[in-house]
């Protein structure tokens, strides 16, 4: 398997990814609002069947924030292959900061959160780490195939 190594292509993908991310981030009401009752019921069921109570709504929300930014970090690492991990993290922090600031200033039904900055940035870093690991593994496979 080969990952396209065209940074210009990945930069276009990165820009395109910002559109759905902005839609989720700037939706007038929380995107999970229609599911909150179902999620609460599911969590009660899980807790009644042995899942620890720390696995709660806040944990699910924080995990969703991490997951939302993993693709951003992965694509950013491919779009800017010369950047270090901390630089991809800064990109995640900047994007998250713009989102949180926009929610604070313009969306009265949404809540800006410092925790979101941390989880979103963490997601971007995880995405970059996953790409680094995948590229390293692909490179190792090429070396072994070449007999090096």
Describe this structure in words.
With 148 residues, this protein is an all-alpha fold. It is 74% helix and 0% strand. It is globular and about 50 Å long. The model has no long low-confidence stretch (mean pLDDT 90).
Rg calculated over all Cα atoms: 18 Å
SSE string: HHHHH
Helix content: over 70%
Low-confidence stretches: none
Coarse shape: globular
State the total count of DSSP E strands: 0
Largest beta-sheet details: none
Q: How many individual helices? A: 5
Query: Beta-strand percentage?
Result: under 5%
Instruction: Supply the helix-strand structural class.
Output: mainly alpha
What is the typical, i.e. mean, pLDDT?
Answer: 90
Distance between the termini: 19 Å
Task: Chart the SSEs and their pairings.
Layout: H1 7-25, H2 36-48, H3 57-79, H4 85-106, H5 114-145
Descriptive terms for the model:
mainly alpha, 148 residues, 5 helices, 74% helix, globular
Précis, in short:
This protein has helices at 7-25, 36-48, 57-79, 85-106, 114-145. With 148 residues, the chain is mainly α. The model has no long low-confidence stretch (mean pLDDT 90).
């Amino acid at each position: 398997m080969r990952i396209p190594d065209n940074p210009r292509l990945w930069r276009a993908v990165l820009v395109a990814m910002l559109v759905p991310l902005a839609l989720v981030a700037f939706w007038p009401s929380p995107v999970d609002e229609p599911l909150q009752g179902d999620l609460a019921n599911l969590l009660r069921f899980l807790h009644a069947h042995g899942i620890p109570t720390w696995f709660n709504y806040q944990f699910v929300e924080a995990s969703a924030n991490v997951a939302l930014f993993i693709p951003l970090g992965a694509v950013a690492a491919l779009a800017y292959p010369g950047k270090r991990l901390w630089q991809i993290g800064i990109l995640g922090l900047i994007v998250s900061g713009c989102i949180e600031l926009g929610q604070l200033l313009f969306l009265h039904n949404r809540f800006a959160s410092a925790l979101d900055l941390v989880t979103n940035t963490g997601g971007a870093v995880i995405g970059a780490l996953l790409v680094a690991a995948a590229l390293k593994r692909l490179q190792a496979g090429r070396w072994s195939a070449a007999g090096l």
